[in-house]
Amino acid sequence: MLRNLLALRQVTQRTISTTSRRHFENKVSEKQKLFQEDNGIPVHLKGGTSDALLYRLTMALTLGGTVYAIYQLAMASFPKKQN
Fold first, then answer.
1. pTM of the model
2. Does the keyword field hold Methyltransferase (predicted)?
3. In this structure, is the dihedral angle defined by the CA atoms of residues 24, 30, 35 and 39, taken in order, positive or negative?
4. Which of 35, 47, 80, 81 could serve as 51's disulfide partner, Cβ 3.0–4.6 Å?
């Protein structure tokens, strides 16, 4: 039993340590230049089209939720009359 556990330990150590690592290019300095550039664009929109789309979607959902909440409050404050 102990031999099996030791063998399993060796196998797992080998597979973990021999896996190939992915090499990623460091793009932090490029992103820093982009976001620190003074071009009059708000920082939450400097990411490009996807940031603008996410911003507009968030604003639309926020506005829709606010309108719906006000509508529900109005409906709750004026209950229907029972005949």
1. 0.56
2. no
3. negative
4. 47
Locus of tokens 């709750």: 76
What is the amino acid identity at position 23? H
Closest CA to 55 of 65, 42, 41, 44: 44
* Token couple for 3: 């031999």
Question: What is the pLDDT at residue 43?
Answer: 87
Instruction: Note the pLDDT tens digit of each residue in 39-78.
Output: 888 888 888 899 999 999 999 999 999 999 999 999 999 8
**What CATH fold (topology level) applies to the domain 1-77?**
Cytochrome C Oxidase; Chain J (4.10.91)
| Whether residue 16 has pLDDT greater than 60 | no
In angstroms, rounded to a whole number, what is the distance separating the alpha carbons of residues 29 and 43? 16
